[in-house]
Amino acid sequence: MEPMIRVENLRKQYKQGARPAVDGVSFEVGKGEFFAFLGPNGAGKTTTISILTTTLSKTDGEVMIAGYDVEKEASKVRRNVGIIFQNPSLDLDLTAEENIRLHVSIYGVYAYRPFYSMMPAAYKQRIEELSQVVGIHENLFKKVKGFSGGMRRKLEIMRSLMHNPQILFLDEPTQGLDASARQSLWTYLQKIRKEENMTIFLTTHYLEEAEEADRVCMITQGKVAILGTPDEIKHKLLGDKTMLLRGEDEAALKEELDAMRATYTEENGSLKVVYSDKTPQHLLSQLHTPLTRLDIHQPTLEEAYLRLVEQSERGVSL
């Protein structure tokens, strides 16, 4: 099956740049996949997503979005993608519905009509469905200036989905939102993704948002540094998942771990045990020796990201 996003040897050289902002980046994203694209400021992240969404031209390489070339078939690309930019782009003096009506007319989905009542039934039905999903149905005909930050973000999501895009680009979608609004927003995004089998392409500085991604691509200095599942990346950059155990009978605890062929080392009076499952529950359930200490460390994507940035600054390659 043709990937929804295919990037091959993408390169972008700005006239004033000492080196390419994007230098030979390649990756593919499948239909329905949740793909996170991460990197520090100046790594080429924003340049790449700008090229993928047709707002910036490339210097070299090939970029195909939903089967269309980003430069030769830009209008077809735009009809197949929804974009939520880092900075909101709503007209605060219009109602939520008026913002949407203007948006769909610009995209050529529906011809503009001066009143909601004059819009076709298909438009009204889509608005009804999406406003219920994102939770702003009661506020559709209220001016956006009275909306909270979370409501404005939900409106932007709704607006970006009106033309049934196959790919949703999210550029820092939860920036400026409190923790509750961020969680609510992601609940809606995952719901929409499953219902519409939509591909999600995310850039974010909130690394915990990328933990649920199918795959993660991290770039530094314009190049792909590492690409894989969150677990693969964490393992490569941070090593194994571990826990510290101490038992009432240390000898008995060691015997049990040996019988399970568990990997462990002694560390400051405790046993540092490696486990490979998502959680240590399977290993712990087989222990009978009473424990006096249990500390579990599961590496996070944020820790892996910081390790990558640190190595990049020191000039260490993976």
Automatic annotation (TrEMBL):
UniProt entry keywords in alphabetical sequence: ATP-binding, Nucleotide-binding, Transport
Alphabetical list of InterPro entries matching this protein: AAA+_ATPase, ABC_transporter-like_ATP-bd, ABC_transporter_ATP-binding, DrrA1/2-like_C, P-loop_NTPase
Domain ABC transporter: 5-246
A Pfam short name: DrrA1-3_C
Transport among keywords: yes
Family matches, as PROSITE patterns: ABC_TRANSPORTER_2
Source taxon at top rank: Bacteria
Segment forming the signal sequence: none
Keyword Ribosomal protein: no
GO molecular function: ATP binding; ATP hydrolysis activity
PANTHER family the UniProt entry points to: ABC TRANSPORTER ATP-BINDING PROTEIN, ABC TRANSPORTER ATP-BINDING PROTEIN NATA
Assigned protein family: Belongs to the ABC transporter superfamily.
UniProt protein name: ABC transporter ATP-binding protein
UniProt source species: Paenibacillus mangrovi
